[in-house]
Specification:
The protein contains 6 helices and 13 strands. Helix 5 links the parallel strand 11 and strand 12.
Length: 239
């Protein structure tokens, strides 16, 4: 592990001791966006009380940054990244962007759905809305269930952050844990239980190429966490 010293929010490191994650061989790369959980979905329109304007504005910013998107040369050409927001007054329910919407810069009401219930142990999601939920819905649910203070989550792909996981000292799930599985959900809850996060936070998924997840009490906080970490990662890479 790189020599890292954090003093008064400044990071000092040995520039010759950088983290280089293993890039999976082509036959080991999982298809991006494949739903791995059992899904019980009801097709319907979103409730009129659901306003997507603000969440989709933040999603559009993430799309412009490339954190959410689609790249023909990576991830087998599939779209990546998703965003969610807890529904106030409805306990564990949350709004999430639909599966394979990464290529779209802006979404409509037809591109979001509601997670009604998530059973992490049974690997089961119950949802309703005009589209199927993101393949990472189980991971989002794990964060919401573990920390009631979290209201907003951004999951995206950011190689700059992912590659500096150890140098920055970011919490992370193990390389052996694939995305969208009960094992990932359990690993995420263990990270949160470890107390490495405060009101907002970010962790990387070493078993999910370039995968990062930021969360906070509001979407601005989650976005700030991700952008601050990206700026630090870019600064490190320049040395």
């Amino acid at each position: 592990m790189a020599a890292v010293l954090v003093t008064q929010n400044r990071l000092f490191y040995n520039k010759n001791d950088l983290f280089v994650p293993k890039i999976p061989a082509p036959h080991m790369v999982e298809t991006e966006g494949v739903i791995k959980y059992q899904l019980n979905h009801t097709d319907c329109q979103l409730d009129q009380s659901i306003d997507i304007a603000r969440i989709d504005a933040w999603r559009s910013i993430m799309h412009r940054l490339g954190v959410i998107g689609q790249c023909k040369k990576k991830y087998a050409g599939y779209g990546y990244g998703n965003i969610s927001q807890r529904i106030a007054g409805n306990g564990e329910q949350f709004l999430i962007s639909g599966t394979q919407t990464g290529h779209l810069e802006t979404l409509t009401r037809n591109d979001y759905c509601i997670i009604v219930h998530a059973d992490l142990q049974a690997n089961r999601i119950t949802s309703r809305g005009p589209c199927r939920p993101s393949s990472e819905a189980l991971t989002h649910a794990a964060v919401y269930q573990q920390d009631s203070a979290v209201s907003d989550i951004i999951h995206g792909h950011c190689p700059e952050i992912w590659q500096q996981t150890a140098v920055i000292g970011l919490p992370h799930s193990a390389e052996s844990i694939p995305y969208g599985t009960p094992e990932m959900a359990e690993a995420v809850q263990r990270l949160l239980q470890a107390g490495d996060f405060r009101q907002s936070g970010l962790f990387t998924m070493l078993g999910h190429e370039d995968g990062v997840l930021a969360f906070a009490a509001d979407m601005a906080g989650a976005a700030r966490e991700l952008i601050d970490c990206l700026a630090l990662a870019l600064a490190i890479a320049r040395h």
